[in-house]
Amino acid sequence: MRKVLVLSFMSALFFVQSNAATAKEKTVNLSSIADKPANKISAEFNVRITLVDIHGAPVTGGSGLRGYWAQNVATGEYYYPGGQEDEDKFENLPAGTYTFGAYAGAWDGAVSKTVTLSSGNVGPDGYIVVALTYWVE
């Protein structure tokens, strides 16, 4: 009986201590957020991929590419456009520097490109346009 009481007391003490630590961590995180200046709010950007040939002219017609990807250079996190395989628009990417690329087809592909997203690059339609150089064998 004593063993059960001691173990119950120890588990209750552990539970109280772990919840107190969690509450303290949450308080620290909230105060650190409150201390940030208002101008440090992170921005999100919309990006549209276009394909150009080696001379910079737009590629017309279809391609055999199987989709696009973006990788945040700082975090290494990958982002993918909407739910369709041929989707070429990335919505609400956090501010940062990204490498954009395409999944190659059987006989074609696109050269990846690294771009820093900033409000100065946003076009009138609300998108930053990233032009990837398209190649075909």
Structural overview:
The chain has 137 residues and is an alpha+beta fold. The chain contains 1 helix and 8 strands, in the order αββββββββ. The strands form 2 sheets. A 4-stranded mixed β-sheet has the order 4-1-8-6, with no helix packed on it. A hairpin with a 5-residue loop joins strand 2 and strand 3. The longest helix has 33 residues, at 2-34. It is globular.
Q: What is the fold's blueprint, element by element?
A:
Blueprint: H1 2-34, E1 44-52, E2 68-72, E3 78-79, E4 89-94, E5 96-102, E6 108-111, E7 113-117, E8 127-136
Parallel strand pairs: 1-8
Antiparallel strand pairs: 1-4, 2-3, 2-5, 5-7, 6-8
Read across the widest sheet, the strand sequence of neighbours is 4-1-8-6
Structural class: alpha+beta
Shape: globular
Which regions contain 5 or more consecutive residues with pLDDT less than 50? 12-16, 20-40
Largest sheet: 4 strands, mixed
**Multimer state:** single chain
Number of helices: 1
Distance between the termini: 80 Å
Give the C-alpha Rg.
25 Å
- How helix-rich are the residues, as a percent range? 10-25%
Please count the beta strands (DSSP E, at least 2 residues each). 8
Order of helices and strands: HEEEEEEEE
Q: Which whole number gives the mean pLDDT?
A: 78
Strand content: 35-45%
